[in-house]
Amino acid sequence: MEEQFMQAKQLVDEKYSEEDPYYGVYVLGMYGLIRKYPHHLSFIQKLFRKTTIIIEKGLISKTLQKHNLSFQDLDEEEERQLAANGGSLPAISYSGIFYFIDRSNHFKRADGNPLVIVNGLCPPSFLLNSFIHEMNHMVKSQKHAFQIEKKAGIESCSIRNGMEVSIYEMYPDSDDIDEMTSYNIFDEAINTIQTSEMIQDILALDGIIPIPCVQEFLDSCDREDFEDDPMYQDVIEVTLPLLKNPHFRSLVDENLIIGHLKPIEEDFESKLGKGSLMNFSDLLDELEDECSYSNDSKRKKALKKQIAKYVQAYNEKSYAYQK
Length: 323
Ligand SMILES: [Zn+2]
Hints:
By secondary structure, the chain is of the alpha+beta class. It folds into 2 domains: about 5-140 and about 190-225, no CATH class; about 235-320, no CATH class. Helix content is about 55%, strand content about 15%. Strands 6-7-8-9 form a 4-stranded antiparallel β-sheet. Strands 1-5-2 form a 3-stranded mixed β-sheet, sandwiched between helices. Helix 1 (about 5-15) crosses helix 2, helix 2 packs across helix 7 and helix 6 (about 125-140) crosses helix 7 (about 185-205). The site of zinc ion has 4 residues, from helix 6 and helix 7. Zinc ion binds near residues 188 and 191.
């Protein structure tokens, strides 16, 4: 059996027994991640050891409450809204890196363990997909993740998770903290496509898995579910030619895990101009908003057209550059 599969099994065995109902999810999921990031094996092992993983049947907000993790402000109402597309919110994760304001009114870093929660009521294929999706977020959320800056008397701190950056600003003489997030949906699109590639690697193991309970788990997964991941469908559809561009993808795959966004931004901007990646990413946010809330098909079409233009221009320039 492939070495990376055995590495995944040994890692999972440190925390779970084969009797655990989600043993197959962990082994296959960690196999996918180890295979995707072969140069970061020890980092992935450490991350799995310290991540609190909770798979429980029921609403994520209830699971948070039950485990006293309700400091994360997800309430039932919000969860139902997030899961507007019929089902329930399948999973959620937190990098464990937060900020707090100290007594002298400055930002400080607070560290906890990364946390991954999956709703165990999901069908097996969604369980596996969600576990990998959230762990993949965690893999990309740990290095170069926290920064404090002071400019013109205004202190700000930024927390990075994959491509996504949240910036918090504190104004003197005010208790308000402003929050701005960038690259949110872009990061989700990247994460979703990476997840589906890991799933393909896992499916290639079908029939040769030496651990019966793991093979049984894979047998219980509905393959069609893997093919149509319901998350971010419109965004994925229109960005796919970019996400499948080998030049762009190697930049993303190599840099997000080590927390370097600059090479990605600079590459994009060298082809499409200053600020282009941010503009492109804002369009994705708008499209996702449109899909989730108002679903105005005319507006959606216009946004998709704009996004496709960026994708096409980037691809043309990057293939020309490679020649
Ligand atoms: Zn996500």
